[in-house]
Specification:
The complex is a heterodimer of chains A (about 160) and B (about 200). Chain A is mostly helical. Chain A contains 5 helices and no strands. In chain A, helix 1 runs antiparallel to helix 3. The chains are: A mainly alpha (about 160), B mainly alpha (about 200).
Chain lengths: ~160, ~200
């Protein structure tokens, strides 16, 4: 009975988190196009000139939105699997692992983006390690889930 | 060396460390995939234990040096940062009750570090799914929520309150993670009973 309750709780919470992540996906799509808005001003005749730092920041932010979108998408798929009651299977674990790896890429890109901005435009460097920490945590949890997946598969074979 | 070159070098080193962390390792050749995975978890857990142990020692030294007025590494006197713009160099400077709250927050952080150390010690010993693992993970979630409440009490004493609710959300996610790990524990227990 308790086992069933625990799984039901996981499914219910997953539904909520999945809805939040879905909103996040929409937000990143919106943010991607919003960050390209400055370029639209210089397309039209008589439009204002875009400064190099504006062009760099806008294009860099657009690419960053793509990375955020991919991390969000993988987490969305992970919670979708949990919502369907698949706690430890290959796809669920794969989504979590992929989210972690995309998060590492996001952190690396973040560092490069701010580093080049500091080098070329003398803007103060602000680089955080939050996404690296989150990425490593996601990957570690994915490793643990992989072990649980193996256990579940062995159990299914035994039964 | 130029600052950007140092940054690139540092990025390269981190990338290499992460690559090694993810794709361990020539010595693992010849082992079964399950054994390789377990060895990878154990290696990572050992390094995390080292990092936690080091942070714990530095934290204890920082607290003791603040209370006793000792220097802290290159700084002439240890400081305690309670909030943005609220930095104190000695306990006597702190308003009434603030020191007690700051000590409660620090004590909670030390307890969380000790529990995290114990959790990774279990992983290092190859115990991945047990009731204690679940308890320790859940503790981290409750710690973040409790820490937020103490922080709220501290910040409410200032006029310029600067508080983020992110730790509460992370705490709730960690408790959710503990539920998932509890499911893993049940699978392992059932497996042991079947064998």
């Amino acid at each position: 009975m308790k086992n069933f309750q625990n799984k039901a709780k996981i499914i219910n919470v997953s539904k909520v988190i999945r809805a939040i992540l879905y909103a996040g996906l929409c937000l990143w799509i919106f943010a991607f196009f919003a960050s390209l808005v400055p370029f639209s001003f210089c397309i039209f005749p008589g439009g204002s000139q875009i400064h190099p730092i504006q062009a760099y920041a806008s294009s860099g932010s657009a690419l960053m939105c793509v990375f955020y979108f991919l991390v969000n998408l993988k987490l969305f798929h992970f919670f979708e699997r949990l919502k369907n009651g698949c706690l430890f299977d290959m796809q669920t674990v794969g989504c979590l692992d992929a989210a972690g790896k995309w998060c590492i890429l996001l952190w690396f890109y973040d560092g490069l983006f701010y580093g080049i901005r500091t080098l070329c435009f003398q803007v103060k460097m602000n680089w955080e390690f939050g996404s690296l920490f989150s990425a490593l945590t996601l990957i570690f949890v994915a490793w643990l889930s992989k072990e649980a997946q193996e256990l579940q598969e062995e159990q299914q074979l035994t039964v | 060396m130029h600052g950007f070159a140092i940054l690139l070098l540092f990025l390269g080193l981190i990338a290499f460390a992460v690559f090694r962390f993810l794709h361990l390792r020539p010595a693992a050749k010849g082992l079964k995939p399950a054994a390789v995975r377990l060895s990878r978890i154990q290696t990572a857990s050992w390094w995390i234990q080292v990092a936690i142990g080091f942070s714990f020692l530095v934290g204890v030294y920082a607290l003791v040096s603040f209370l006793c007025g000792w220097p802290f590494f290159s700084e002439h006197q240890a400081r305690m940062v309670v909030g943005p713009g609220h930095v104190y160099t000695s306990p006597a400077e702190m308003p009434d009750g603030l020191l007690a709250l700051a000590l409660v927050k620090t004590g909670l952080a030390f307890a969380a570090m000790a529990v995290l150390f114990a959790l990774f010690n279990l992983y290092w010993r190859g115990i991945l799914f047990s009731a204690r693992n679940v308890l320790y993970i859940r503790f981290q979630g409750y710690y973040l929520i409790l820490s937020f409440i103490v922080d709220y009490q501290i910040q409410s004493r200032f006029h310029d309150m600067d508080l983020s609710t992110t730790p509460v959300f992370i705490g709730l996610i960690i408790i959710f993670l503990a539920w998932i790990m509890d499911e893993g524990r049940k699978i392992q227990e059932e497996q042991e009973l079947t064998v």
